[in-house]
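Support reply, case 0932

Customer input (verbatim):
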Amino acid sequence: MSYCRACGHQIHESALSCPQCGAVQAPGHHAQPARSNHGPDTPLPGTLWLPVPALICSAIPLLALFDSNGWDQDQLLGSFLFITAATVLASVSLAKQTRGKGMAIAALVMAAIALLGTCGTRL
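Our regenerated output:
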């Protein structure tokens, strides 16, 4: 038995075309089965829609720490909300995706620094 060059379906060695997809087979050619990049053991690469917003959400309170004026309660609450959103987005990105792990780790580190800085601010 051999495999179809186009779809990887197992076909008879003497078949001129694949009964599954109809692809014409080269005579005497025994192709290996087609391998998919996304097998059951290979995670999907993912997109950058989680780590990029995590970076942005962690950068906002981090940059707000450079404000020399005292913070009011709204600024403090907003900073904690951005830090929470960055932490959740980065954690989900690390758990579910293979692409953008470096950005997710950077977002977590920036969120931790922003959290420490926010806790140290005066009202």
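We compared this against your earlier run and they match. Two observations from our side: The mean pLDDT is 83. The first helix runs from residue 51 to 64. Please reopen the case if you see a mismatch on your end.
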